[in-house]
Design brief:
Helix content: 25-40%
Strand content: 35-45%
Distance between the termini: 52 Å
Shape: globular
Low-confidence stretches: none
Order of helices and strands: HEEHEHEEEEEH
Number of strands: 8
Strand order of the largest sheet: 7-6-5-4-8
Radius of gyration: 18 Å
Length: 164
């Protein structure tokens, strides 16, 4: 039985990777085990070069549910959710930052950098030690420590879509 939220998520990812990645051809973007209100959720986020639709989520759900049930890494009741990362996908781990280089991202910070707690710009890099990320904001390169970032996600300007 796996202990701890991170251990459960990584244990589940190890269990399902051979089926989801090797057999089904999807990428696992993220696995989270989180409590919301009184309920626990095991969230598996999948991606592919062709995008993800509801049928893909259902296929993966049906494939991984028996694997997780048999291994039984989670005590008690939880909800299993399989979804796409979406257009404004969360960026949490170094691999996410690497995958999103060249994309417009939004960073919300725990404390001010250059007098601001939020930046929107092109993600231009992540340091080799994964401690710093670099954004291009209005033509200026800004480096921010990853441990200062409270939330990071791909940014999509919905207003420009409506006004375009």
């Amino acid at each position: 039985m796996a202990k701890g939220k991170k251990n459960i998520a990584s244990t589940v990812e190890e269990l399902i990777s051979p089926v989801v990645v090797d057999e089904m051809g999807y990428d696992i973007w993220d696995v989270e085990y989180v409590k919301e209100g009184a309920s626990w959720y095991l969230r598996i986020t999948i991606d592919s070069e062709n995008g993800i639709d509801i049928d893909d989520c259902e296929k993966v759900h049906r494939a991984v549910d028996p694997i997780i049930e048999e291994a039984d890494p989670i005590e008690g009741f939880y909800y299993l959710e399989v979804s796409s990362p979406g257009i404004e996908r969360n960026i949490r781990v170094p691999e996410h930052y690497e995958a999103c280089i060249g994309w417009e991202v939004q960073l919300k910070l725990f404390s001010d950098v250059n007098g601001k707690k939020e930046f929107i710009g092109e993600l231009t890099g992540i340091s080799e030690d994964h401690e710093d990320v670099t954004l291009l904001v209005n033509g200026e390169s800004i480096t921010i420590k990853r441990n200062m970032i409270s939330k990071a996600n791909v940014y999509y300007d919905f207003d420009s879509e409506l006004n375009g």
